[in-house]
Design brief:
Oligomer: single chain
Largest sheet: 2 strands, antiparallel
Structural class: mainly alpha
Helix content: over 70%
Length: 293
């Protein structure tokens, strides 16, 4: 493994660890910040924080090394922003109605959504092993979402998290078309415009502005869990390629679930442990399939 690959691994693992903070810490802040307002501050924190880093980078003369976005990428950029308004709002609503551990594991459904959307919309091939992984992850999400197995009813919180995953699946396919461009610029655009869009929606539906301390904490969490995480992920893709980066990043939901169980002192149910086993097996199939592609 050369130095570039080592940097790529470090970036991918850090990206996973930073994003894993999102569900448990957002769950804590939702007691003081309304869901849509929380989504707005998370993305504004990502955009403003990365804009500050971009300014520092320009002062050091390093900004000119990256390719800037052009009009050719405008449709994918607009789609990315719109989906990044919808997805975090859905996730915050889901987090307010289900446990942080469940939400963390359900985030792996994003793999399924991204793969199927790539198949249907962009004609990308899906191997047998990837289909097996998709099936196992889907079965795991069904177990995590089931509220009452006897009546086949589903937790509304889990449904909202799955909606967020589908939105991010579409968004991943948009962002994939932009990955050769400046990662910091991409995150700044994502954060500021998606955050402002969510803020307008929050104010329109009558959600109050949070107190200054929860607002600052949400901004800081957004900078780390969305801003730094996304930028590090894109840098890792350059060194490792999409498949190997996804393999390292796949640990994020499991880190998030573990942190959630510790922070909220939750005792895993048998259903949760069965879903966890299926999710691990499904994620292994997906990452092996991606590595073989």
């Amino acid at each position: 493994m050369n130095d570039g690959q080592r940097r790529g691994v470090a970036c991918a693992v850090l990206a996973a660890a930073f994003y894993a903070l999102n569900s448990p810490l957002s769950k804590l802040l939702l007691g003081d910040v309304a869901p849509t307002m929380m989504a707005a501050f998370l993305y504004l924190g990502a955009g403003l924080g990365m804009a500050a880093l971009q300014w520092l980078r320009s002062r050091s003369g390093r900004a000119g090394r990256e390719q800037r976005l052009t009009r050719r990428e405008l449709p994918f950029t607009v789609g990315m922003v719109a989906l990044d308004i919808a997805a975090p709002i859905a996730l915050m609503v889901g987090l307010s109605r289900t446990t942080a551990a469940n939400a963390s594991l359900l985030n792996n459904f994003e793999i399924v959504a991204t793969s199927l959307i790539a198949l249907v919309c962009f004609g990308e091939a899906i191997s047998r092993r990837l289909w097996a992984g998709i099936g196992l992850v889907t079965l795991s999400t069904a177990l995590l979402s089931a509220q009452d197995a006897g009546s086949f009813s589903f937790s509304s919180g889990s449904v909202w998290v799955l909606i967020a995953c589908v939105c991010w699946g579409f968004e991943n396919n948009c962002t994939r078309r932009l990955s050769a461009k400046d990662p910091v610029e991409i995150v700044v655009i994502k954060g500021i415009f998606s955050g402002l869009g969510s803020l307008c929606i929050a104010l329109y539906v009558g959600e109050p502005l949070p107190a200054w301390l929860p607002a600052l904490l949400a901004l800081g969490l957004g900078f780390v869990a969305y801003g730094l995480s996304i930028a590090l992920y894109i840098y890792a893709q350059r060194e490792l390629g999409a498949a190997r980066t996804s393999a390292y990043y796949a640990v994020a939901p499991f880190i998030g679930a573990g942190l959630s169980l510790i922070i909220f002192r939750e005792i895993p149910t048998p259903g949760f442990m069965a879903a966890l086993a299926l999710m691990i097996a499904g994620t292994w199939c997906v990452t092996c399939a991606q590595g073989a592609a």
